[in-house]
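Researcher: Here's the sequence for the chain we discussed earlier.
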Amino acid sequence: MKTTTLVKILGFSMATLFSAATFAAEMDTVQFESLDQNQDGQLTAEEAARDTAVSENWTTIDKDGSGTVDKAEFSAFETMLKEGGEKKPAE
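Model: Thanks. This is the structure I predict for it:
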């Protein structure tokens, strides 16, 4: 295989992986924003109650124990789910 073909395949593979990661991050943001009813950048337990998985895992998601969940905490939880951590209940 020629080096240029290998470089093209490798470049395409990296672009595909980057696109998938970007899409997953955007989906996390969309879900967070749909739950964040007052759009203050924080989820309260009341807002989280609209999603069974978020509500049932509230203490796990709220890492700092502040009583609210920010985008970083929410994203970390979603990443944990994707990596096989806590399981989302069937909806």
